[in-house]
Structures
1.
Amino acid sequence: MSRRCLQSILRGHAGVKPQDLSKEIAEVIASKELVQYLVDAVDAVRNIGNFAAHPIKSKNTGEIMDVEPGEADWLLDILGNL
Protein backbone atom coordinates (compact mmCIF):
# COMPACT_ATOMS: atom_id res chain seq x y z
CA MET A 1 0.00 0.00 0.00
CA SER A 2 2.85 2.38 0.81
CA ARG A 3 4.33 1.77 -2.64
CA ARG A 4 1.11 2.91 -4.28
CA CYS A 5 0.93 5.99 -2.07
CA LEU A 6 4.54 6.86 -2.86
CA GLN A 7 3.93 6.43 -6.57
CA SER A 8 0.89 8.71 -6.41
CA ILE A 9 2.90 11.38 -4.55
CA LEU A 10 5.77 11.18 -7.03
CA ARG A 11 3.46 11.47 -10.02
CA GLY A 12 1.15 14.12 -8.57
CA HIS A 13 3.61 16.37 -6.75
CA ALA A 14 7.09 15.63 -8.06
CA GLY A 15 5.96 15.46 -11.69
CA VAL A 16 7.82 12.26 -12.54
CA LYS A 17 7.06 10.52 -15.81
CA PRO A 18 4.76 7.52 -15.18
CA GLN A 19 6.87 4.34 -15.33
CA ASP A 20 7.53 1.56 -12.88
CA LEU A 21 8.11 2.74 -9.31
CA SER A 22 11.83 1.99 -9.29
CA LYS A 23 12.41 4.26 -12.32
CA GLU A 24 10.17 6.95 -10.85
CA ILE A 25 12.19 6.92 -7.62
CA ALA A 26 15.43 7.09 -9.61
CA GLU A 27 14.05 10.08 -11.53
CA VAL A 28 13.09 12.03 -8.40
CA ILE A 29 16.41 11.22 -6.70
CA ALA A 30 18.34 12.33 -9.81
CA SER A 31 16.45 15.63 -9.80
CA LYS A 32 18.35 16.58 -6.61
CA GLU A 33 15.23 18.35 -5.34
CA LEU A 34 14.82 16.25 -2.19
CA VAL A 35 16.89 16.70 0.94
CA GLN A 36 19.03 13.67 1.80
CA TYR A 37 16.85 12.34 4.61
CA LEU A 38 13.88 12.22 2.19
CA VAL A 39 16.02 10.53 -0.47
CA ASP A 40 16.96 7.91 2.12
CA ALA A 41 13.34 7.54 3.23
CA VAL A 42 11.99 7.17 -0.32
CA ASP A 43 14.62 4.54 -1.02
CA ALA A 44 13.70 2.70 2.20
CA VAL A 45 10.01 2.68 1.26
CA ARG A 46 10.99 1.26 -2.13
CA ASN A 47 13.10 -1.47 -0.56
CA ILE A 48 10.48 -2.50 1.98
CA GLY A 49 7.74 -2.31 -0.62
CA ASN A 50 9.74 -4.37 -3.10
CA PHE A 51 10.19 -7.09 -0.51
CA ALA A 52 6.47 -7.11 0.24
CA ALA A 53 5.42 -6.96 -3.42
CA HIS A 54 8.08 -9.32 -4.76
CA PRO A 55 9.09 -11.68 -1.95
CA ILE A 56 12.14 -13.83 -2.33
CA LYS A 57 11.20 -17.04 -4.04
CA SER A 58 11.48 -20.05 -1.81
CA LYS A 59 10.15 -23.57 -1.55
CA ASN A 60 7.40 -22.31 0.76
CA THR A 61 5.04 -20.72 -1.74
CA GLY A 62 2.62 -18.31 -0.11
CA GLU A 63 4.72 -18.03 3.03
CA ILE A 64 3.73 -15.04 5.16
CA MET A 65 6.69 -13.00 6.34
CA ASP A 66 6.82 -11.41 9.79
CA VAL A 67 6.99 -7.64 10.01
CA GLU A 68 8.47 -5.52 12.73
CA PRO A 69 6.14 -3.74 15.17
CA GLY A 70 5.51 -0.21 13.95
CA GLU A 71 6.73 -0.87 10.39
CA ALA A 72 3.47 0.22 8.74
CA ASP A 73 3.29 3.33 10.93
CA TRP A 74 6.88 4.23 9.98
CA LEU A 75 6.13 3.88 6.26
CA LEU A 76 3.05 6.09 6.54
CA ASP A 77 4.99 8.68 8.58
CA ILE A 78 7.63 8.83 5.83
CA LEU A 79 4.98 9.33 3.17
CA GLY A 80 3.41 12.08 5.27
CA ASN A 81 6.72 13.98 5.25
CA LEU A 82 7.10 14.01 1.47
2.
Amino acid sequence: MAYSIPLEFYQQIEEQFGKELAAKVAKTVESGVQRVEEEAKALAVQKKIELKDELTKELVTKAEFMGEMKAVREEIKTVETRLQGEIKALCEEMNGKFSSMNLKINFLIGLMILALTAMNPVVTELLKRWLKL
Protein backbone atom coordinates (compact mmCIF):
# COMPACT_ATOMS: atom_id res chain seq x y z
CA MET A 1 0.00 0.00 0.00
CA ALA A 2 1.49 3.31 -1.07
CA TYR A 3 1.66 6.08 1.45
CA SER A 4 1.55 9.76 0.57
CA ILE A 5 2.19 12.57 3.02
CA PRO A 6 -0.65 14.97 3.78
CA LEU A 7 -1.00 17.91 1.41
CA GLU A 8 -0.69 20.52 4.19
CA PHE A 9 2.60 18.99 5.37
CA TYR A 10 3.99 19.01 1.80
CA GLN A 11 2.92 22.63 1.29
CA GLN A 12 4.68 23.73 4.51
CA ILE A 13 7.91 22.00 3.44
CA GLU A 14 7.65 23.55 -0.01
CA GLU A 15 7.12 27.03 1.42
CA GLN A 16 10.13 26.79 3.74
CA PHE A 17 12.65 24.83 1.68
CA GLY A 18 11.51 25.07 -1.92
CA LYS A 19 9.85 22.81 -4.42
CA GLU A 20 12.87 20.62 -5.16
CA LEU A 21 13.74 19.90 -1.53
CA ALA A 22 10.06 19.34 -0.64
CA ALA A 23 9.81 16.65 -3.36
CA LYS A 24 12.95 14.90 -2.02
CA VAL A 25 11.67 15.04 1.59
CA ALA A 26 8.25 13.74 0.51
CA LYS A 27 9.85 10.84 -1.39
CA THR A 28 12.15 10.06 1.55
CA VAL A 29 9.25 10.06 4.04
CA GLU A 30 7.08 7.96 1.73
CA SER A 31 9.85 5.40 1.13
CA GLY A 32 10.58 5.30 4.89
CA VAL A 33 6.93 4.67 5.68
CA GLN A 34 6.78 2.05 2.93
CA ARG A 35 9.87 0.29 4.36
CA VAL A 36 8.36 0.36 7.87
CA GLU A 37 5.13 -1.18 6.49
CA GLU A 38 7.09 -3.93 4.73
CA GLU A 39 9.05 -4.71 7.88
CA ALA A 40 5.83 -4.73 9.88
CA LYS A 41 4.28 -7.19 7.43
CA ALA A 42 7.37 -9.41 7.56
CA LEU A 43 7.37 -9.27 11.36
CA ALA A 44 3.65 -10.10 11.43
CA VAL A 45 4.22 -13.12 9.19
CA GLN A 46 7.12 -14.25 11.38
CA LYS A 47 5.03 -13.87 14.55
CA LYS A 48 2.19 -15.84 12.96
CA ILE A 49 4.59 -18.67 12.10
CA GLU A 50 6.03 -18.63 15.63
CA LEU A 51 2.54 -18.70 17.17
CA LYS A 52 1.47 -21.51 14.87
CA ASP A 53 4.55 -23.56 15.80
CA GLU A 54 4.02 -22.89 19.51
CA LEU A 55 0.34 -23.82 19.34
CA THR A 56 1.12 -26.93 17.31
CA LYS A 57 3.52 -28.05 20.03
CA GLU A 58 0.85 -27.51 22.68
CA LEU A 59 -2.06 -29.09 20.83
CA VAL A 60 -2.61 -32.83 20.67
CA THR A 61 -2.37 -34.34 17.23
CA LYS A 62 -5.02 -36.69 15.93
CA ALA A 63 -2.60 -39.62 16.12
CA GLU A 64 -1.76 -38.87 19.76
CA PHE A 65 -5.45 -38.51 20.58
CA MET A 66 -6.32 -41.78 18.90
CA GLY A 67 -3.46 -43.52 20.75
CA GLU A 68 -4.75 -42.26 24.08
CA MET A 69 -8.30 -43.29 23.16
CA LYS A 70 -7.04 -46.80 22.33
CA ALA A 71 -5.32 -47.03 25.71
CA VAL A 72 -8.49 -45.86 27.48
CA ARG A 73 -10.60 -48.39 25.55
CA GLU A 74 -8.22 -51.21 26.50
CA GLU A 75 -8.37 -50.18 30.15
CA ILE A 76 -12.17 -50.09 30.00
CA LYS A 77 -12.19 -53.59 28.46
CA THR A 78 -9.90 -54.83 31.24
CA VAL A 79 -12.17 -53.38 33.92
CA GLU A 80 -15.24 -54.77 32.13
CA THR A 81 -13.71 -58.26 31.98
CA ARG A 82 -12.79 -58.12 35.66
CA LEU A 83 -16.28 -56.95 36.62
CA GLN A 84 -17.90 -59.68 34.54
CA GLY A 85 -15.79 -62.26 36.36
CA GLU A 86 -16.76 -60.83 39.73
CA ILE A 87 -20.45 -60.72 38.76
CA LYS A 88 -20.29 -64.34 37.60
CA ALA A 89 -18.66 -65.39 40.88
CA LEU A 90 -21.33 -63.51 42.86
CA CYS A 91 -24.10 -65.13 40.82
CA GLU A 92 -22.70 -68.58 41.51
CA GLU A 93 -22.40 -67.80 45.21
CA MET A 94 -25.96 -66.49 45.32
CA ASN A 95 -27.26 -69.55 43.44
CA GLY A 96 -25.60 -71.77 46.04
CA LYS A 97 -27.16 -69.79 48.87
CA PHE A 98 -30.58 -69.86 47.20
CA SER A 99 -30.35 -73.63 46.76
CA SER A 100 -29.48 -74.00 50.45
CA MET A 101 -32.36 -71.71 51.46
CA ASN A 102 -34.74 -73.58 49.15
CA LEU A 103 -33.83 -76.87 50.84
CA LYS A 104 -34.32 -75.39 54.31
CA ILE A 105 -37.69 -73.87 53.36
CA ASN A 106 -38.88 -77.20 51.90
CA PHE A 107 -37.82 -78.98 55.11
CA LEU A 108 -39.68 -76.39 57.25
CA ILE A 109 -42.78 -76.67 55.07
CA GLY A 110 -42.72 -80.46 55.45
CA LEU A 111 -42.24 -80.13 59.21
CA MET A 112 -45.15 -77.66 59.43
CA ILE A 113 -47.43 -79.99 57.45
CA LEU A 114 -46.41 -82.88 59.71
CA ALA A 115 -47.02 -80.80 62.85
CA LEU A 116 -50.41 -79.56 61.64
CA THR A 117 -51.40 -83.05 60.64
CA ALA A 118 -50.27 -84.50 63.97
CA MET A 119 -52.21 -81.85 65.90
CA ASN A 120 -55.41 -82.58 64.02
CA PRO A 121 -57.89 -84.46 66.29
CA VAL A 122 -59.04 -86.75 63.48
CA VAL A 123 -55.49 -87.78 62.70
CA THR A 124 -54.81 -88.29 66.40
CA GLU A 125 -57.74 -90.73 66.58
CA LEU A 126 -56.53 -92.55 63.50
CA LEU A 127 -53.04 -92.87 64.96
CA LYS A 128 -54.47 -94.25 68.21
CA ARG A 129 -56.43 -96.90 66.29
CA TRP A 130 -53.47 -97.88 64.15
CA LEU A 131 -51.10 -98.05 67.07
CA LYS A 132 -53.82 -99.55 69.28
CA LEU A 133 -53.24 -97.32 72.20
3.
Amino acid sequence: MITVILTIHIIIAVALVGTILLQRSEGGGLGIGGGGGQGGGFMTARGTANLLTRTTALLAAAFFATSIILAILAGNGSSSSSVVDEVLEETSKVPAIPSVPTDQ
Protein backbone atom coordinates (compact mmCIF):
# COMPACT_ATOMS: atom_id res chain seq x y z
CA MET A 1 0.00 0.00 0.00
CA ILE A 2 2.77 2.42 0.92
CA THR A 3 4.63 1.63 -2.31
CA VAL A 4 1.63 2.53 -4.45
CA ILE A 5 1.02 5.81 -2.62
CA LEU A 6 4.73 6.64 -2.71
CA THR A 7 4.80 6.05 -6.48
CA ILE A 8 1.78 8.33 -6.95
CA HIS A 9 3.45 10.90 -4.67
CA ILE A 10 6.61 10.93 -6.81
CA ILE A 11 4.62 11.25 -10.05
CA ILE A 12 2.68 14.19 -8.58
CA ALA A 13 5.93 15.83 -7.43
CA VAL A 14 7.48 15.58 -10.90
CA ALA A 15 4.30 16.92 -12.54
CA LEU A 16 4.20 19.77 -10.03
CA VAL A 17 7.79 20.77 -10.81
CA GLY A 18 7.06 20.64 -14.53
CA THR A 19 3.92 22.74 -14.16
CA ILE A 20 5.73 25.35 -12.11
CA LEU A 21 8.55 25.58 -14.66
CA LEU A 22 6.05 26.16 -17.48
CA GLN A 23 4.58 29.22 -15.80
CA ARG A 24 5.71 32.64 -16.86
CA SER A 25 7.78 34.42 -14.26
CA GLU A 26 8.27 38.16 -14.01
CA GLY A 27 11.35 37.91 -16.21
CA GLY A 28 9.80 35.64 -18.82
CA GLY A 29 11.35 32.37 -17.62
CA LEU A 30 10.33 29.21 -19.44
CA GLY A 31 6.79 30.41 -20.06
CA ILE A 32 4.85 28.91 -22.92
CA GLY A 33 2.96 32.10 -23.66
CA GLY A 34 4.89 32.56 -26.90
CA GLY A 35 5.37 36.31 -26.54
CA GLY A 36 3.15 39.19 -25.66
CA GLY A 37 1.07 39.98 -28.72
CA GLN A 38 0.87 36.81 -30.78
CA GLY A 39 -2.71 35.84 -31.47
CA GLY A 40 -2.29 32.53 -33.30
CA GLY A 41 -1.23 30.43 -30.32
CA PHE A 42 -2.94 27.55 -28.58
CA MET A 43 -4.43 29.74 -25.89
CA THR A 44 -4.20 33.35 -24.91
CA ALA A 45 -1.63 34.36 -22.30
CA ARG A 46 -4.36 34.88 -19.72
CA GLY A 47 -5.99 31.51 -20.47
CA THR A 48 -2.67 29.73 -20.21
CA ALA A 49 -1.94 31.43 -16.89
CA ASN A 50 -5.34 30.45 -15.50
CA LEU A 51 -4.96 26.85 -16.65
CA LEU A 52 -1.47 26.51 -15.21
CA THR A 53 -2.51 28.17 -11.94
CA ARG A 54 -5.42 25.79 -11.49
CA THR A 55 -3.29 22.79 -12.45
CA THR A 56 -0.64 23.86 -9.93
CA ALA A 57 -3.27 24.21 -7.21
CA LEU A 58 -4.71 20.75 -7.93
CA LEU A 59 -1.29 19.11 -8.00
CA ALA A 60 -0.28 20.89 -4.78
CA ALA A 61 -3.46 19.69 -3.03
CA ALA A 62 -2.80 16.13 -4.22
CA PHE A 63 0.83 16.40 -3.06
CA PHE A 64 -0.25 17.51 0.42
CA ALA A 65 -2.87 14.75 0.59
CA THR A 66 -0.39 12.02 -0.33
CA SER A 67 2.13 13.48 2.13
CA ILE A 68 -0.41 13.29 4.95
CA ILE A 69 -1.44 9.76 3.98
CA LEU A 70 2.20 8.62 3.92
CA ALA A 71 2.82 10.20 7.32
CA ILE A 72 -0.20 8.45 8.81
CA LEU A 73 0.81 5.10 7.34
CA ALA A 74 4.38 5.52 8.59
CA GLY A 75 3.13 6.38 12.07
CA ASN A 76 1.02 3.22 12.37
CA GLY A 77 4.11 1.03 12.64
CA SER A 78 5.65 2.78 15.64
CA SER A 79 5.36 1.04 19.00
CA SER A 80 6.36 3.78 21.42
CA SER A 81 4.01 6.64 22.00
CA SER A 82 6.48 9.25 23.16
CA VAL A 83 10.17 9.99 23.25
CA VAL A 84 9.75 11.05 26.87
CA ASP A 85 8.52 7.54 27.77
CA GLU A 86 11.65 6.03 26.22
CA VAL A 87 13.92 8.40 28.15
CA LEU A 88 12.13 7.62 31.42
CA GLU A 89 12.54 3.90 30.81
CA GLU A 90 16.26 4.31 30.16
CA THR A 91 16.82 6.42 33.27
CA SER A 92 14.97 3.96 35.48
CA LYS A 93 17.34 1.18 34.32
CA VAL A 94 20.49 3.13 35.26
CA PRO A 95 21.62 2.30 38.81
CA ALA A 96 21.62 5.19 41.21
CA ILE A 97 25.00 6.40 42.46
CA PRO A 98 25.13 5.98 46.25
CA SER A 99 25.54 9.25 48.04
CA VAL A 100 28.51 9.67 50.31
CA PRO A 101 27.51 11.04 53.72
CA THR A 102 29.33 14.19 54.65
CA ASP A 103 30.59 14.72 58.19
CA GLN A 104 29.55 17.97 59.75
4.
Amino acid sequence: MRLQGNAWKFGDNISTDHIAPGRLFHLRSNLPELAKHVLEDADPGFAAKVSVGDFVVGGSNFGLGSSREHAPTIIKMAGVSAVLAKSFARIFFRNAINVGLPVLICDTDQIAAGDQLEVDLATGTIHNLTQDKILKAPPLPDVMIRLLADGGLAAHVAKHGDLRVE
Protein backbone atom coordinates (compact mmCIF):
# COMPACT_ATOMS: atom_id res chain seq x y z
CA MET A 1 0.00 0.00 0.00
CA ARG A 2 1.74 3.17 -1.26
CA LEU A 3 0.61 6.68 -0.38
CA GLN A 4 1.81 10.05 -1.65
CA GLY A 5 1.11 13.63 -0.57
CA ASN A 6 2.35 16.74 1.20
CA ALA A 7 3.32 16.97 4.87
CA TRP A 8 1.39 19.13 7.36
CA LYS A 9 3.66 19.54 10.36
CA PHE A 10 2.43 19.70 13.96
CA GLY A 11 4.33 19.56 17.24
CA ASP A 12 4.29 17.37 20.32
CA ASN A 13 1.23 16.55 22.42
CA ILE A 14 -1.45 17.16 19.80
CA SER A 15 -4.51 16.05 21.75
CA THR A 16 -7.84 14.70 20.59
CA ASP A 17 -9.21 18.10 21.64
CA HIS A 18 -6.83 19.81 19.17
CA ILE A 19 -8.08 17.39 16.51
CA ALA A 20 -11.82 17.41 17.34
CA PRO A 21 -12.47 20.45 19.53
CA GLY A 22 -14.62 19.70 22.58
CA ARG A 23 -16.53 22.95 22.12
CA LEU A 24 -17.94 21.37 18.95
CA PHE A 25 -19.21 18.29 20.79
CA HIS A 26 -22.70 19.04 19.46
CA LEU A 27 -21.44 18.08 15.97
CA ARG A 28 -20.46 14.53 16.96
CA SER A 29 -23.50 13.15 15.12
CA ASN A 30 -22.64 15.20 12.01
CA LEU A 31 -19.12 14.03 11.20
CA PRO A 32 -18.88 15.77 7.80
CA GLU A 33 -19.53 19.09 9.55
CA LEU A 34 -17.12 18.25 12.38
CA ALA A 35 -14.45 17.35 9.78
CA LYS A 36 -14.58 20.96 8.57
CA HIS A 37 -13.01 21.84 11.94
CA VAL A 38 -10.35 19.11 12.09
CA LEU A 39 -7.17 20.28 13.83
CA GLU A 40 -8.40 23.88 13.90
CA ASP A 41 -7.11 24.42 17.42
CA ALA A 42 -3.60 23.51 16.21
CA ASP A 43 -3.85 25.19 12.78
CA PRO A 44 -7.03 27.24 12.19
CA GLY A 45 -6.82 26.97 8.39
CA PHE A 46 -5.85 23.31 8.12
CA ALA A 47 -9.23 21.86 7.10
CA ALA A 48 -9.64 24.35 4.26
CA LYS A 49 -6.08 23.86 2.95
CA VAL A 50 -5.41 20.12 3.26
CA SER A 51 -5.61 18.10 0.04
CA VAL A 52 -6.69 14.51 -0.40
CA GLY A 53 -3.67 12.27 0.10
CA ASP A 54 -1.73 14.65 2.35
CA PHE A 55 -0.08 13.55 5.61
CA VAL A 56 -0.41 14.85 9.14
CA VAL A 57 3.06 14.80 10.72
CA GLY A 58 3.25 15.09 14.49
CA GLY A 59 5.84 14.95 17.20
CA SER A 60 5.65 12.87 20.36
CA ASN A 61 2.45 11.69 22.02
CA PHE A 62 0.12 12.41 19.10
CA GLY A 63 -3.55 11.88 19.94
CA LEU A 64 -3.35 12.06 23.72
CA GLY A 65 -6.51 12.72 25.65
CA SER A 66 -9.95 11.23 25.44
CA SER A 67 -10.70 8.02 23.60
CA ARG A 68 -13.11 9.57 21.11
CA GLU A 69 -13.03 7.85 17.73
CA HIS A 70 -14.13 11.13 16.20
CA ALA A 71 -10.52 12.36 16.15
CA PRO A 72 -9.02 9.83 13.71
CA THR A 73 -12.31 9.59 11.82
CA ILE A 74 -12.40 13.28 10.92
CA ILE A 75 -8.70 13.28 10.03
CA LYS A 76 -9.50 10.52 7.54
CA MET A 77 -12.65 12.32 6.34
CA ALA A 78 -10.54 15.42 5.62
CA GLY A 79 -8.64 13.33 3.05
CA VAL A 80 -5.46 12.70 5.05
CA SER A 81 -3.86 9.46 3.86
CA ALA A 82 -1.86 8.75 7.05
CA VAL A 83 -0.52 10.23 10.26
CA LEU A 84 3.22 10.03 10.97
CA ALA A 85 4.52 10.81 14.46
CA LYS A 86 7.38 10.07 16.83
CA SER A 87 4.89 8.35 19.14
CA PHE A 88 1.14 7.98 19.55
CA ALA A 89 -1.21 7.74 22.48
CA ARG A 90 -2.09 4.05 22.58
CA ILE A 91 -5.85 4.46 22.21
CA PHE A 92 -5.53 6.96 19.34
CA PHE A 93 -3.26 4.52 17.48
CA ARG A 94 -5.78 1.68 17.87
CA ASN A 95 -8.78 3.88 17.02
CA ALA A 96 -6.99 5.09 13.88
CA ILE A 97 -6.46 1.54 12.62
CA ASN A 98 -10.05 0.67 13.55
CA VAL A 99 -11.43 3.51 11.40
CA GLY A 100 -9.00 2.82 8.54
CA LEU A 101 -6.50 5.64 9.07
CA PRO A 102 -2.88 4.48 8.71
CA VAL A 103 -0.46 5.59 11.46
CA LEU A 104 3.31 5.14 11.43
CA ILE A 105 5.94 5.84 14.05
CA CYS A 106 9.08 7.53 12.67
CA ASP A 107 11.59 10.33 13.23
CA THR A 108 9.46 13.26 12.12
CA ASP A 109 12.34 15.71 12.72
CA GLN A 110 13.42 14.69 9.21
CA ILE A 111 10.19 16.04 7.68
CA ALA A 112 9.39 19.73 7.14
CA ALA A 113 6.01 21.34 6.48
CA GLY A 114 5.19 21.06 2.80
CA ASP A 115 7.62 18.24 2.03
CA GLN A 116 6.36 15.78 -0.58
CA LEU A 117 6.29 12.26 0.89
CA GLU A 118 5.82 8.77 -0.48
CA VAL A 119 4.95 6.14 2.12
CA ASP A 120 4.94 2.37 1.74
CA LEU A 121 2.88 0.98 4.63
CA ALA A 122 3.93 -2.63 4.06
CA THR A 123 7.65 -1.91 4.37
CA GLY A 124 7.51 1.15 6.64
CA THR A 125 9.56 3.13 4.12
CA ILE A 126 8.99 6.88 4.01
CA HIS A 127 10.66 8.63 1.09
CA ASN A 128 10.91 12.36 1.62
CA LEU A 129 10.95 13.34 -2.05
CA THR A 130 11.62 17.01 -1.28
CA GLN A 131 14.75 16.34 0.78
CA ASP A 132 15.66 13.08 -0.99
CA LYS A 133 15.81 11.22 2.34
CA ILE A 134 14.62 7.74 3.22
CA LEU A 135 13.12 7.22 6.67
CA LYS A 136 12.16 3.92 8.21
CA ALA A 137 9.19 3.17 10.41
CA PRO A 138 8.32 -0.20 11.89
CA PRO A 139 6.09 -1.75 9.22
CA LEU A 140 2.51 -2.35 10.24
CA PRO A 141 1.63 -5.98 10.93
CA ASP A 142 -0.15 -7.80 8.10
CA VAL A 143 -3.42 -7.88 10.05
CA MET A 144 -3.38 -4.07 10.31
CA ILE A 145 -2.59 -3.73 6.60
CA ARG A 146 -5.61 -5.98 5.85
CA LEU A 147 -7.86 -3.91 8.14
CA LEU A 148 -6.68 -0.68 6.48
CA ALA A 149 -7.14 -2.12 2.98
CA ASP A 150 -10.73 -3.01 3.88
CA GLY A 151 -11.40 0.50 5.24
CA GLY A 152 -11.12 -0.28 8.96
CA LEU A 153 -12.36 -2.85 11.45
CA ALA A 154 -16.12 -2.47 10.87
CA ALA A 155 -15.71 -2.61 7.09
CA HIS A 156 -13.43 -5.65 7.43
CA VAL A 157 -15.97 -7.52 9.57
CA ALA A 158 -18.79 -6.55 7.20
CA LYS A 159 -16.77 -7.84 4.24
CA HIS A 160 -15.62 -11.10 5.83
CA GLY A 161 -18.37 -11.73 8.38
CA ASP A 162 -15.71 -12.01 11.08
CA LEU A 163 -12.30 -10.73 12.13
CA ARG A 164 -10.01 -12.84 9.97
CA VAL A 165 -6.39 -12.61 11.08
CA GLU A 166 -4.82 -15.73 9.61
